[in-house]
Design a protein that fits this description.
CATH architecture of the largest domain: Orthogonal Bundle
Distance between the termini: 58 Å
Radius of gyration: 34 Å
Largest sheet: 6 strands, antiparallel
Strand order of the largest sheet: 1-6-2-3-4-5
Oligomer: single chain
Number of helices: 8
Shape: elongated
Order of helices and strands: HHHHHHHHEEEEEE
Helix content: 55-70%
Length: about 350
């Protein structure tokens, strides 16, 4: 299975309209499909798989953040319970002191009957301070109880959200696996000759698209990378030959955005995990300004991403069954480019 996928490694569309060999007589009869039709079907399946993978990755990121929030709230709740225990201890101590020191006379009566008015006044000041301490202690106890109750509610809600995300992630994982199964079923019907014809058609499409960019002057002039960009490129190129695997970000395998996120993370500039988030949150730049380390985002829904390395080429984790490789920039339909190590422009008004 993987051998067939590898023979279809990443590089896009166009060319001959060859009719495929009919299915064996034992199989249910179905219309013959041309190479271009078959390539279109495969590309659609790969795109569906990548969309499902990106959705899974986004949920995995949410789940990781939610787990951190649950852990934070659990820690705060534990501290609030300890504080509540301390406050209750203080209230108990004051209650015992009041019980032990009572003599049946209130402080005002003791003041009137005292043979030493100054001493009585001093004692009254102490008694007043003790009363204020009791008020502060009870107030603190009440506030701590409220904080504990609020944290307990927040922790329960956060845990419920975590469980919902975990269930959603499981369903999305099943969705990715179903899309991959569709790719495998289609590839399993092809002969080596058909696979070669599809690969040749795909390669011709990439070459044509790259030539159009060159002819139109859309490919950028060679320019140096930033120091962080150079580190990111070195990391990405060091991963050449490692397999694509959906939902992974190294070190043994990568999906497309896992590779770019890890490369820039190792360069000291953390970026969002998914291709869509990288497109949404990083600084967009015109193609004429591309430099090594910048990210090229593909497809209208921003479901694939690669890293520009110069000379009209990108390094990428292309798709299931392929390995991390250097490819022409026009391997897929280009949406735009973003720069991770440049702050977004602000309104100067």
């Amino acid at each position: 299975m993987s051998g067939m996928l590898l023979r279809l490694a990443c590089t896009a569309t166009v060319a001959a309209q060859a009719v495929l060999v009919p299915a064996p007589a034992a199989a249910a009869p179905e219309p013959q499909r041309s190479v271009s039709q078959l390539l279109t079907a495969l590309q659609q399946l790969y795109r569906q798989t990548e969309r499902a993978t990106e959705t899974y990755n986004a949920t995995a990121e949410q789940l990781e953040r939610q787990r951190a929030e649950v852990s934070r709230l659990d820690g705060e709740l534990a501290r609030a319970r300890l504080a509540l225990q301390d406050s209750r201890t203080d209230v108990g101590r004051l209650a015992r002191q009041q019980y032990q020191s009572t003599d049946g006379l209130g402080p005002y009566v003791r003041l009137l009957l005292s043979p030493d008015p100054q001493h009585a006044l001093d004692e009254g000041h102490v008694i007043g301070e003790l009363a204020r301490e009791r008020v502060r202690t009870v107030t603190r106890l009440t506030a701590t109880e409220r904080q504990r109750d609020a944290l307990a509610r927040a922790a329960r809600k956060a845990l419920d959200t975590q469980l919902v995300l975990a269930d959603r992630q499981r369903k999305q994982r099943d969705g990715v696996q179903a899309e991959l199964a569709g790719v495998e079923r289609l590839l399993a019907t092809l002969t080596p000759a058909q696979l070669a014809a599809v690969a040749a058609l795909e390669q011709q499409g990439v070459t044509t698209a790259q030539q159009r960019l060159t002819t139109a002057g859309a490919l950028p002039a060679n320019r140096p990378a930033s120091p962080a960009g150079a580190r990111a490129v070195r990391y990405a190129l060091d991963q050449l030959g490692k397999p694509y695997a959906w939902g992974t970000e190294g070190p043994g395998s990568y999906d497309c955005s896992g590779l770019t996120a890890q490369a820039w993370g190792h360069a000291g500039t953390p970026i969002p995990r998914t291709a869509r988030e990288q497109w949404q949150h990083l600084t967009r730049i015109p193609f004429s300004e591309l430099r090594p380390g910048d990210l090229v985002v593909y497809f209208p829904d921003a479901t694939h991403v690669a890293m520009y390395v110069g000379n009209g080429e990108v390094v990428q984790a292309p798709r299931p069954g392929a390995n991390v490789e250097v490819s022409p920039l026009a391997s897929y339909p280009v949406l735009g480019a973003v720069r991770p190590d440049q702050a977004p422009a602000t309104d100067a008004r």
